[in-house]
Amino acid sequence: MISFFSYLKIIDREIMRDSEFDEICRLAIQRLKSFVESGACARGYNTAWICQRWQLSVKELREEWEKQTGVNKSEAAFRSQICSLSKTLYKLFPEEDFGEILSGDMAEGQAPRMINTLDALEYDNIPFCTLFSEEINTKALKGDWEDYSIEELHDEIRVLKAYRTVMDKIMTLDTNKLSYIKRVIDSKVVDEQRKPELLKVLGLC
Predict the structure, then answer these.
(1) How many Å is the Cα radius of gyration of the chain?
(2) DSSP state of 187
(3) Which of 2, 24, 150, 189 is the most buried (most CB within 10 A)?
(4) Distance between CA atoms of 175 and 63, rounded to whole angstroms?
(5) Is the pLDDT of residue 107 over 70?
């Protein structure tokens, strides 16, 4: 199989040559290149170094390495590392993703799968507990480890999505008004006559 970097070079050249190439697909490849160059898929300095120079040939990589480090390294060693990186990258972005982009075989306005994967990668270091409330996280910790299809998670996804929507809206609320509501709820009814009315409209009583 052709290396991931070689495949990416072919796609990149195709995009540069075709001025009418779909803009969403062009963005997907640009983001993919940035992801590769970030070295996020690498497992150490050596492979990250290769990722930053993915456009170079094996011969050019060896020459650049020896020039920078003064250490000899065989082209076979570079090929082995590129092969390992390719396996990782193809697992994230299979050949079908490139085929989809080249053919433009997508519904109008639909982003390619590659963009979905790149978006998801940004959440790799964001744990569940920071995305949802402590109560939701505690409940999730009590469950057994089982596999489900996305379709089977309909109710859970609907509620979690609604929670995220509400959290986004909460960030737009007036701080002073929110502070007032907190103050009223935290007060005693005898001291704050608006408390019963507020609790009623909030559906708490």
Answers:
(1) 26
(2) S
(3) 24
(4) 59
(5) no
Phi and psi angles of residue 158, each rounded to the nearest 5 degrees, phi first: -60, -45
Closest among 73, 71, 93, 91 to 81, alpha carbons compared: 73
| Rounded Cα distance, 138 and 143, in Å | 9
CA distance 191 to 177: 19
pLDDT of residue 108: 55
Please give the structure tokens belonging to residue 149: 């299809």
Higher pLDDT, 145 or 9: 9
**Which contacts (CB < 8 Å, 24+ apart) does range 126-133 have?**
131/164, 132/160, 132/163, 132/164, 133/163
Boundaries of every domain in the chain: 4-121, 128-170
